[in-house]
């Protein structure tokens, strides 16, 4: 594929009049787009993809044009340079790819219906109308939409509707914005609306398959989020309304279209009477993430896709800042510690990982940039580090100045660092360069050598890695004042350890709060001191110890066999984030044992010992006045007990299922996935399998759908697994947007792994045709690598994927995931005997 040509250099649009006529019955689009702009050369180009161009006119006269489908352009000869207004007439198919303009399907009372929505990020606006489809090419847009309308339908867009004439819906002109943020949707929609303190109308829209109460939570969060951001950014929301729309078919999680944010139904709608706290926190952070973009990304947009991180990392941090302000009792920063931090640390330790800031060479590489662990999670950690360094006052002042300087235009990362640095009187750009321009992160080794407390930094790798001597400017966040704020050198000496220890009166620790993107390897002297005072550590600090144990063990700088005896010290914690980190290590131990073996029995016995006291304390039913931590910890420890095949836990789950057999959807949402999975694994039958699969087809509750997915895919029955895989390509059962989760769950089921692996290899062409070109496509490779850990699977993985390594958008993923599996194979080979021996010794 050819290198991207910046069309904006030759033609700078200022305004679009976009008319689109959509025929759902015939699945066609016809339209004409009038573009006014400045032509700096006689030969200009605009983007198109899958459009059939019938004519290009200037001042009512046809002008010469050619279409280049490889470059996705229409190349036009204009009579003279300067301001020009050209009109392009075209037609296109209405496809089911979940890109461009596309239909979403759903059922109401058994009747199949559809609504039309859009997804233009990254470069799919060109599938809807001809345009300069580049983020820098900001312009104003006047939309006019006609469709095969019937009574009871609603149409919404970025801006309010202005008027309707001859069946055409005309919308108010937008503010100056990028093409990928244009959006509209129509169909039989219901909505709920409210107004913010400043007069912004906020609405939540969904199909009529949902209960009206499912819109309430999102409406409250959206309203409060906009009010919060207006105050925090000290910049008004720039549009008259903010619509949130749930689409039944949506490839991404959500999309920040300006004024019309689109979501997967699972990330916007929820039952206020039966949704787990975990799910409420997730939905709230998705909404606040997208609304953070209305300023950071929409009002001020990255100049080019290489600064994509600038949009996503910032919104990823701000989603937590906003939810923390709206619901402080949720302790949302603890969710950051259990989701963003470990995701970034695991991915960023593999050699070959992309840096946060990456050059883009061709269109296929743009979607490959959406590596969630790096662009979202690592980038957010970078900004959390900056926030910790400069404080909220400087952050808010810098952002206010940044928005004032660049509103309705574009900016780069350097522009943000300049604004924040001036507000904080600190060279933020110099500090951040080491983190954004080079991949990976350091392990800081803290040791006592010749009586001196020494720190050294070196790049940390999981698996083989090529050490090029990279150094980082590390915010140490130490609890001894002798440690510098920023460590720039490879090695530093803090002084006589015994004197420092006596003077400070506490164990030496680094990265207090776990906000900086590095891990710590303490020598035995320092670690023993920390463990002897474990009860003095906060939940986040205890979690950080467990997190670093796991990563150091994955990198073979520490042995899992040595970690196992330490785990019981953390097992009785009442903190959800400590338990999450504890059982993340337990899950890692599963790779060392063969399913169904005596060694696995030893692991299950150990897990039962770890979880028994917590299971007894928390039980299966919520207790009055219990903490949020208890609510969130219950499913973690109950899941551990079920894995351990604790007979009382299995029996209790079965009784709950039996007593609620005719109302499974009403089971308490936090334990429902465990009850369903337990029933399928231990009491399953073909009848139950069919009933649950039919429930999955019929329910519109996204949370319940997810629970059914987890249960059905856990069946140990090979014949039922075969039936299930036969449904993978049936969109009436499993929508393409949800298929990856089904594939991953069957693959992780030892009884289903071979069948799932055979399916993806045999039907790769179908998968590529169905979801290829979408930013989620490469993640099918990722989830496969995350499950595999044996030499045989590694060989099969390489045999299948190495011939595809030159496929644009897949190259880095394939290369990295081979390394991921290789590192696990080497780890298991090196440590299996010691891990099994330790498990047997601690369970005697």
Automatic annotation (TrEMBL):
- Catalytic activity, as annotated: Release of an N-terminal amino acid, Xaa-|-Yaa- from a peptide, amide or arylamide. Xaa is preferably Ala, but may be most amino acids including Pro (slow action). When a terminal hydrophobic residue is followed by a prolyl residue, the two may be released as an intact Xaa-Pro dipeptide
ERAP1-like C-terminal domain location is: 510-821
For whether the record's keyword set contains Cell inner membrane, the answer is no
Enzyme kind, highest EC tier: hydrolase
Which coenzymes or cofactors are required? Zn(2+)
| Domain of life of the native organism | Bacteria
Checking InterPro entries in the record gives:
Aminopeptidase_N-like_N, Aminopeptidase_N-like_N_sf, ERAP1-like_C_dom, M1_APN-typ, Peptidase_M1, Peptidase_M1_aminopeptidases, Peptidase_M1_dom, Peptidase_M4/M1_CTD_sf
> Which residue windows are transmembrane per the record?
none
Domain Aminopeptidase N-like N-terminal, by residue range, is 12-181
Entry's cofactor comment: Binds 1 zinc ion per subunit.
Which keywords describe this protein according to UniProt? Aminopeptidase, Hydrolase, Metal-binding, Metalloprotease, Protease, Zinc
Enzyme Commission number, as recorded: 3.4.11.-
UniProt domain Peptidase M1 membrane alanine aminopeptidase: residue ranges? 217-435
Pfam family name, one: Peptidase_M1
- Which family would the database say this protein is a member of? Belongs to the peptidase M1 family.
Q: What is this protein called?
A: Aminopeptidase
């Amino acid at each position: 594929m050819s290198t991207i040509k910046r069309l904006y250099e030759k033609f700078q649009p200022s305004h679009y009049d976009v008319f689109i006529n959509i025929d759902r019955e015939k699945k066609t689009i016809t339209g004409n787009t009038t573009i006014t702009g400045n032509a700096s050369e006689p030969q200009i180009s605009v983007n198109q993809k899958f459009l059939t161009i019938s004519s290009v006119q200037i001042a009512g006269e046809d002008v010469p044009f050619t279409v280049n489908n490889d470059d996705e352009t229409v190349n036009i000869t204009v009579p003279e340079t300067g301001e020009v207004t050209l009109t392009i007439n075209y037609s296109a198919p209405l496809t089911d790819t979940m890109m461009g303009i596309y239909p979403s399907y759903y059922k109401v009372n058994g009747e199949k219906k559809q609504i039309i929505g859009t997804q233009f990020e990254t470069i799919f606006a060109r599938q809807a109308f001809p345009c300069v489809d580049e983020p820098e090419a900001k312009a104003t847009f006047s939309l006019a939409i006609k469709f095969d309308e019937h009574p009871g339908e609603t149409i919404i867009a970025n801006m309010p509707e202005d008027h309707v004439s001859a069946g055409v819906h005309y919308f108010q002109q937008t503010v100056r914005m990028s093409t990928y943020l244009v959006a509209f949707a129509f169909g039989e929609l219901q909505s709920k609306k409210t107004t913010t303190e400043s007069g912004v109308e906020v609405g939540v829209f969904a199909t009529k398959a949902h209960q009206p109460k499912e819109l309430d939570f999102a409406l409250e969060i959206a309203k409060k989020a906009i009010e919060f951001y207006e105050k925090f950014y000290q910049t008004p929301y720039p549009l008259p309304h903010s619509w949130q729309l749930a689409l039944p078919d949506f490839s991404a999680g959500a999309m920040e279209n300006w004024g019309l944010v689109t979501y997967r139904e699972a990330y916007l709608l929820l039952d206020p009477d039966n949704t787990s706290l975990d799910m409420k926190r997730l939905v709230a952070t998705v909404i606040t993430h997208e609304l953070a973009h209305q300023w950071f990304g929409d009002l001020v947009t990255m100049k080019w896709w290489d600064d994509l991180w600038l949009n996503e990392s910032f919104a990823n941090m701000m989603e937590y800042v906003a939810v923390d302000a709206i619901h402080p009792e949720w302790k949302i920063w603890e969710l950051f510690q259990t989701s963003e931090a470990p995701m970034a640390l695991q991915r960023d330790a593999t050699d070959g990982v992309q840096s946060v800031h990456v050059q883009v060479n061709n269109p296929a590489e743009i979607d490959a940039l959406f590596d969630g662990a790096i662009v979202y999670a690592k980038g957010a950690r970078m900004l959390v580090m900056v926030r910790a360094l400069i404080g909220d006052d400087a952050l808010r002042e810098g952002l206010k100045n940044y928005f004032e300087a660049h509103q309705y235009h574009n900016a780069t990362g350097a522009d943000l660092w300049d604004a924040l640095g001036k507000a904080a009187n600190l060279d933020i750009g110099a500090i951040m360069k080491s983190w954004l321009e080079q991949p990976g992160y350091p392990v800081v080794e803290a040791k006592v050598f010749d009586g001196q407390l020494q720190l050294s930094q070196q790049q940390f790798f999981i698996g083989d890695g090529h050490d090029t001597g990279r150094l980082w400017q590390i915010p140490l966040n130490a609890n001894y004042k002798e440690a510098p704020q920023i460590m720039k050198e490879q090695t530093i000496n803090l002084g006589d350890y015994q004197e420092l220890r006596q003077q400070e009166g506490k164990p030496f620790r680094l990265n207090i709060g776990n906000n900086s993107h590095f891990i710590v390897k303490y020598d035995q002297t320092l670690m023993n001191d920390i463990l002897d005072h474990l009860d003095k550590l906060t939940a986040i600090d205890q979690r950080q110890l467990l997190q670093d144990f796991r990563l150091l063990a994955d990198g073979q700088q520490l042995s899992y066999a040595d970690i196992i005896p330490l785990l019981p010290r953390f097992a009785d914690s009442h903190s959800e984030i400590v338990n999450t980190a504890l059982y993340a290590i337990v899950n890692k131990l599963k790779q060392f044992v063969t399913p169904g073996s005596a060694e696995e029995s030893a692991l299950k016995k150990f897990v039962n010992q770890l979880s028994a006291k917590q299971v007894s304390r928390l039980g299966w039913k919520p207790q009055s006045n219990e903490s949020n931590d208890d609510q969130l910890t219950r499913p973690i420890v109950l899941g551990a007990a079920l894995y351990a095949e604790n007979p009382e836990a299995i029996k209790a789950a079965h009784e709950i299922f039996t007593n609620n057999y005719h109302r499974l959807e009403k089971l308490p949402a936090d334990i429902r996935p465990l009850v369903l999975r337990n029933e399928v694994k231990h009491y399953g039958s073909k009848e139950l399998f069919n009933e649950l699969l039919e429930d999955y087809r019929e329910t519109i509750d996204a949370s319940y759908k997810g629970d059914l997915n987890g249960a059905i895919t856990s069946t140990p029955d090979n014949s039922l697994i075969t039936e299930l895989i036969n449904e993978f390509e049936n969109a009436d059962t499993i929508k393409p947007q949800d298929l990856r989760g089904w594939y991953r769950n069957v693959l992780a089921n030892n009884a289903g792994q071979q069948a799932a692996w055979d399916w993806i290899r045999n039907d790769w062409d179908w998968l590529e045709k169905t979801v290829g070109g979408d930013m989620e496509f490469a993640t099918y490779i990722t989830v496969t690598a995350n499950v595999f850990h044996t030499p045989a699977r590694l060989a099969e993985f390489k045999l299948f994927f190495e011939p595809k390594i030159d496929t644009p958008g897949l190259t880095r993923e394939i290369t990295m995931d081979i390394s991921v599996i290789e590192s696990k194979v080497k780890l298991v080979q090196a440590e299996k005997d010691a891990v099994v021996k330790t498990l047997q010794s601690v369970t005697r």
